[in-house]
Amino acid sequence: MKFIELGLIWYDNRDNINVTPYSAYSQITNMDEIDKLILKRLQEDGRTPFTRIAREAQVSESTIRSRYRALIDRGVVHTVSIVDPYALDFQAPAILGLSVEPGFSEDVASAISDLPEVSYVVLTLGTYDLIVEVFCRDLTHLTDFIANRIPQISGVKQIDTLLITKSYKLSFRWSPDLELE
Q1: Which of 44, 64, 111, 171 has the least CB density, counted as fewest CB within 10 Å?
Q2: Which of 26, 135, 145 is nearest to 83 (CA)?
């Protein structure tokens, strides 16, 4: 069985989960007011021009550009386009709680992560070993996914399905409190 040190979880540009150990967390969180401003403005609008941020921070655009690049290199920020699955007619989203055989968590998580319907996979402590978010086109697609595809993955013991009927908050704008001093 593999154990990982607890840390800050982030995704690389291939959607692989990475964990930065908390011992290295202080390096990532060592941000000054300019870094915080960059993050805050880009979370408000990812297309905010660096010139606008530079003007607000009273520094050059090249400073903002190099700071932004450093934030990317340190794994603090990732720039992606977010697609709304409902707009693409994926009308059967669900959360799956998976129980797996002892010692199979990593293998099951890896296999599940490769399935195109899956948007989110996390290892948890509690009732379920893995929590998985899926987006299927309709109930027939979801039923096939749960009844036929997931059980083919070695190590899966039990699947509990929570069909999402209404989303109250779907935010990709989460950030820690970045209050500017």
Answers
A1: 171
A2: 135
Looking at the structure, tell me whether residues 66 and 97 fall in a common domain. Answer: no
When divided into structural domains, the chain yields a total of 2
Per-residue pLDDT tens over the stretch 2-34: 333 333 444 444 444 444 444 444 444 578 999
103-148 tens-digit pLDDT: 999 999 999 999 999 999 999 999 999 999 999 999 999 999 999 9
| Same domain assignment for residues 68 and 37 | yes
Considering only CA atoms, which of 152, 141, 145 is closest in space to residue 111?
Answer: 152
Tell whether 64 and 113 lie within a shared domain: no
* CA–CA separation, 89 and 112 (whole Å): 22
Do 54 and 105 reside in the same domain of the chain? no
